[in-house]
Design a protein that fits this description.
2 domains, 3 helices
């Protein structure tokens, strides 16, 4: 099937590639370990993104000011 829509999709609960008909007819049953691994990978990706956004914020003028002000307030 070149250039067309795929007959497969990812299960939203466990990330496994399954046929559309399996999700629609509820033939797919998530494996508990696969679901745990999938949720852990999503959490790791979210933590990585948060860290990236936090570093970008701290590199911004407002972030640098907030860090300066917080350090100054702790000393007082």
């Amino acid at each position: 099937m070149l250039g067309g829509a795929s007959d497969y999709t990812s299960c939203p609960a466990c990330g496994t590639s399954v046929g559309h008909e399996s999700l629609q007819t509820e033939l797919h049953v998530c494996d508990e370990r696969q679901r745990d691994d999938y949720e852990a990978s999503l959490a790791l990706a979210e933590a990585f993104l948060f860290d990236l956004e936090w570093r970008e914020y701290l590199d911004s003028p407002r972030g640098r000011f907030e860090a300066f002000y917080a350090a100054r307030s702790r000393r007082a």
